[in-house]
Amino acid sequence: METLYPQSSFFYGVTLKRTLNYPYWLTVSGTSIMRELILEKLKTSGYLPPLPDVIIALQKLMNDPDCEVEDARRLIASDPVLSSRVITMANSALFGGGRDLAEDIEDAIVRLGLGAVLELCYTVELPCCIKVPQTMGQTRFWKHGLAVAILSRELATKVLTDKEELGSSYLAGLVHDIGLLVYDYLVPDQFSEFLKTTDFINSDQPLEILEKNFFGISHSELGAAYLKEWWPISPKVVEATAAHGRSGLEVDQTPDLTRLVSTANRIANVYDLSHPYETSHASIDENCLAALNMSKEELDELVDWAQVGLLAAESVL
Questions:
Q1: d(Cα 199, Cα 67) in Å, to the nearest integer?
Q2: Domain ranges of the chain
Q3: Does 91 have pLDDT greater than 60?
Q4: CA separation for the pair 316, 121 (Å, rounded)
């Protein structure tokens, strides 16, 4: 079996080859060493996908008070494929498409605003730049991410007041599960073994506990470490990614992006807008609804809206 660092024997004097041999890494000491190896490789790997250049440039424009529509139009128009897909999405129900359809990128920016156009670019660019394991399914993985993105954005407009958190809510929802993909980049054999040997549906343990018992690190923590190391994005997104598996918003808590993304993820899982490897431990109780100042009927309507958005986005996922 290929090792992460051939001919190396650091970390408590245990060879990496031994560490990665099944079933040694499933011992307490084995998972602890596996965790250190994964985090070390995260920092040194040369093939983890960076954030696309067009996204980085658009984010800089968003933070530039002197930015004009023409600046953003020129940037997006430099990529004809991206331009076409952005216009298609701008005219979809997900982004309020109606009788006044956008004919070009400038129309889309004027009608939606640069913030929404940046969200469009996230939606069409990120699924193209990050590999999803075939067993997980490209479309299903990103549909779950998009569902959480839509829910996070809509909930954020109801309960958040911090401008940075509001602006980060969509991206935070979209990439919250990215750590699952990082496993496949860094330790593909072990991740494949995890998927094959774990009974997610019938397990009495949440997904993150199963991951920690196997890898020594959850996909939430790994995803946050990846985003912090490789992507120039808001720390708010990193924090939300790290904590999205925790309990959602409750009445006695101050709403913030971290709790909101966790709640959106919980809603997506309860309503079966999820990827194939989530365990069935999520629930939405009256406490959570009260914290969101929503009734069950209003939540159902919000989920229906998210499902409309998913249908609209199928052509680009």
A1: 51
A2: 1-44, 52-129, 136-316
A3: yes
A4: 11
CA angle 45, 196, 313 (to 5 degrees): 70
Least Cα distance to 303 among 294, 291, 293 occurs for 294
DSSP codes of every residue in 9-60: --STT--HHHHTSTTGGGSHHHHHHHHHHHHHHHHH-S-SPPPPHHHHHHHH
CA atoms within 13 A on the CB side of 283: 4
Residue 176 in contact with residue 243, Cβ under 8 Å? no
* C-alpha to C-alpha distances, 278 to 5, 117, 158, nearest whole angstrom: 31, 30, 27
Residue-wise pLDDT tens digits, 253-267: 778 999 999 999 999
Q: What is the pTM of this model?
A: 0.87
Q: For residues 173 and 145, give the distance between their C-alpha atoms in angstroms, rounded to a whole number.
A: 6
Q: Are the CB atoms for 288 and 263 separated by under 8 Å? A: yes
Once rounded to an integer, what is the mean pLDDT over residues 6-10? 37
The SS3 assignment for 142 reads: helix
Architecture of domain 136-316: Orthogonal Bundle (1.10)
